[in-house]
Each structure stands twice: as C-alpha cells, then as structure tokens.
Amino acid sequence: MKITLLFFLGTTLIQLVLLNRYFFALLGSSQQNKLQTTFHYLLSGIIIYLSSISFFPVVITGSLSMCSAFIISWCYPARIESKLIFSIVYVILGFVAETLSYGLISQFHLSSDAIDLSNEQTRLPILLLSSLIFFLFIVFIKLFKRQRDYKLNTWYYLILAVINIVSLFILHTLFFYAQENNMYIYSAIAVLLINVTIIYLFDELIESFQMKDELQRLHKQTEYQNTSYQKISNSFQMTKRIIHDTNKHFIYIRACIQAGEREKALGHISKTLQAMKNSYFTIATGNLVIDSLLNNAINISNERNIQITHHISIENLDMIDPFDLCIVIGNILDNAVEAAQLLPTPAERFIFIRIFTQYQMLTIYSENSYTPCNKRRIKKNNELHGVGLLNIRQITERYGGHLTVTASETFKTIVVLPINRGV
C-alpha cells in the first residue's frame, strides 16, 4: 500500500515538474506570487493524482490532464487563448510520449502477452520513459520558441484547436491498434512533428503580426513627422508673407489715421496681429516633437470644442530619441482627444497635459474626460487603441521608465522616462 502511494505521488510530482518546464519554455517566467503559484500547483497536483489512481476512460483522463495543464498555465503571462491551445498541445505531447514509451518497452517485452497497464511493475517504466521523452520534447521546443504572446484573430485559435483535437482523435485511435501493428509508432511520431510544427508556426504567426503593428507604428511616426515639418514650413511661409507685406500694412494704417478713420486702423491692426499669431506655434519650447504634436492637438481640440490646458517645463531631451518621444506623446494626445470628443456637451470635454523634467526624469501627465460606456467607440479599429498603449509601454520599458494608466471618472496616463541614460 505504501509503495503504491509513493508510486502515485511520485507520478504526480514528475508531471508537475514537466508542466513547470513546459510552460516555462513556452511562456517564460511565472509572474504570480508564491502563494498563488502554490495554490495552482496544489490544485493541479490533486487532479493529476486522482487521475492516476483511477482508471478513467481515455477521454476523461485526457480532459483531466488538460485541466491540470490549464490551471498551471495561469501562473504565466499569456492570453487565455494561448494558454488553452498550449494546454491541449501538452496533452497531445504527453499522449505521444506515452505511446512511444509503450512501443519501445513492447519491443523488449519477452512475453508474448500484451503489456498490462494496470500493473505497477509495467506502468512505472512506461511512466519514467515517457517522462524522459516528454522532457526531450521540451528541450526541442525551447530551441525555437521565443516566448511571444499576441492577440490573434479568433479564427486562428479555432483552426489550431481543431487541428489539436483531430490529433488527439488520431492518437486515441492508433493506440487501440498498437498490438496489431508496430507501425503505429511512426504515425505517432508524425503527429508529434505536426504539433511541434504548429507551435513553431504559431510563434511565426505572432511575429508576423507584431511586425505588421511595428510597420503601422512606423507609418504613424512618418505621418507625425510629415505633419510637423509641413506645419513648420507653412509657418515660415506665412511669416515670410506677412513680413513681405508689412510695409503695405503700415502705409494703409497710416492713411486710415490721417483720414481720421480710427476704427478701420484698429481693425486692420487686429487682423494683422491675428495673422501673425496664426503664423507661429502657440507652444514653442524648442523641442520639435513636443511643439508640433502639442500644437496640432490644440488645433484639433479647438475644432472639436475640447478645452485643453497645458503646462510645459522641459530641459534638454537629447538623450531621448525623437522617434520614441513622438510615439509616446503622439499616442497619449491621440487617445486623449478621441476619448474627450465622445462626451455629449462641450462643457464636459477637457484635456490637461503636463510635461516637465525634474531629477533627470521626463514626466508626461495626461488627464482627460472619459465615459467608460463609450470606450468601444474610441477607435474605429479598437485594437489600434491597445496597440498605441502597447507601443508606449514598450518604449518606457526599454528606457527603464514607468507607465501608469487609470480609468475611472477621468482617464489618466503617466509616463516617466529617464533622460540621463541611453537606450
């Protein structure tokens, strides 16, 4: 009895270790605290133990194995769709490992009788050999898996799930013909290669979508830069025209004064001053990125009846790449404008932006009016809104900075970037 208990406990422990290595190879390090991790492993261990001591049908055993894997997957940072797919693949790889170990042991089995899987003396070597084979699978996966995670279209996950389920069905069918034809081992290896290929293609698919987002980000950056340069060019051209016509304006104003038409003179002076005001940026900090993007946001806010308040106090930002700064500030302002404009009345629409440097840190604080029920309307393509925040987060992490986003009665974004170090 004690030997049996130790046998099943050892089986459970080995499975938990394999689960740990499997998800580490796929998803990286766990991000939960020790208490949460212990709870997940304990719950998964109980399921594995109950499955080991009970002779359930293959379908139930496979379902329990997938549940135990899915529970462990929650210790790792990934989307629920990825966790589910990898949990199914875990069952498939486990089934292949057991099938291969059963086939190898059958080759060295001296008796002509079929191997009795209910016998502990035969189950133990099968377990140990299958665990070794599974560990080799993990080592192989680790060679090419780059621990990416990205939200794909639901259809991709459905297709992967269907392929995995079909693989399980094939393995289940092959196992019943194991005693009649040893060629089933090669079929199991083929299924193994198919599913390892799925993991590889899944990783490549994620990379292609991430590259697509990167191209969109670069395209957006180019648009920002073109807009900035165009505004500066227009500003210079307008200023040049005003300077060129200054003499004519003075002659006309003098004539109005001499004729006693004071109102016409004052009106023309006001009109000329307004033209001069429109010819240069409202904000002129000397930083092209901040000046162009913030002035552009001010113009858009005025057009959409959004009250925008700003406070800028910056020093030298040469250590921050203008490309990165443009993406951070551009996305923050875009999100703020698009959220604020959804408020029903102009009185409710506001944006407050503060950008300042202190203690060798650049801090960007943005707060805007926000209606949670309208958050799905903020973007025509709702995924782009998330991509914008993801791009901001990637840049802040690369600089060793910090991003905080809170949404309650107002939407607040805080970005802190060190300016005393390179990237």
From TrEMBL:
This is GHKL domain-containing protein. The keyword DNA repair does not apply. CDD domains: HATPase_AgrC-ComD-like (cd16935). It comes from Paenibacillus tianjinensis. Keywords: Membrane, Transmembrane, Transmembrane helix. Residues 321-411 form the Sensor histidine kinase NatK-like C-terminal domain. PANTHER family: TWO-COMPONENT SENSOR HISTIDINE KINASE (PTHR40448:SF1). The chain crosses the membrane at residues 43-72, 84-105, 125-144, 156-177, 183-202.
